[in-house]
Amino acid sequence: MAPVKDWSTATLKEWHANAPVPYCWIYDSVPGADDGMGNSRCSCPLCGFASLRDLPLSFSLHMQLADLYAEIEQVRGDSFRAN
User: Crossing angle for the helix pair 54-61 and 63-76, nearest 10 degrees?
Assistant: First the structure.
């Protein structure tokens, strides 16, 4: 059950003001805004389901993780994504 998925942005921000979890900058951008401030969808960094538009932003923010993924792909001889 995930009731938060049905909340408005205003309701979520109001709740988060006093929440015991850290705020993530990704929510400051409207999904799909192409403003370079956030991904088109919220997911794990370098998600295998991320769009090709989102991956460069993720790479720039998580360079060490991107390097680790590349090393793992090279050692395994396959990739996390088909493309």
Answer: 110
CA distance 41 to 54: 8
What are the residue boundaries of the structural domains of the chain, listed by start?
7-76
Single out the residue of 46, 67, 49 nearest to residue 57, CA to CA: 46
Question: Global pTM?
Answer: 0.53
Q: Show the DSSP H helices in 1-83 as ranges.
A: 9-16, 54-61, 63-76
Tell me: the pLDDT tens digits for 16-47? Answer: 888 888 777 666 665 555 565 666 666 777 88
Give per-residue pLDDT as tens, 6-17: 888 788 778 888
> Residue 55 burial (CB < 10 Å; 0-12/13-18/19+)?
middle
Largest CA distance in the chain: 47
